[in-house]
Amino acid sequence: MKIFGFELKRATPYKDATKGFMSTFFNNAVGRTPVTEETVMGISAYYAGVRRISESIAQLPLEVIRTDGDFKQQIEHPSKYLLNKEANYKTISFDFTQILVTSAINWGNGLAIIERDAQARPISLTNIPTKSCTPFDYDGELFWKVDLGPKQKGLMVSDRDIINLRGFGVDDVLGLSAIEYHKQNLGLTIAAQDYGSDFYNKGTRLDGYIEYQGKLDVEVKNSIKQQWDNNYGANGVGGTAILDNGTKYTRLGLPPEDAQFIETRKFQKNEIATILGIPPHFINELEHATFSNIEHQNIEYVTYGLGGWIEKLEQEYGRKLLRESEKNNHYFRHNVNKFLRADIKTRAEFYRLMTDIGVYSINEVRALEELNPVEDGDLRFVQLNRIELSIAKEYYEKDNEESGDTRD
Question: Which domain does 134 fall in, by range?
Answer without folding.
Answer: 11-206+253-341
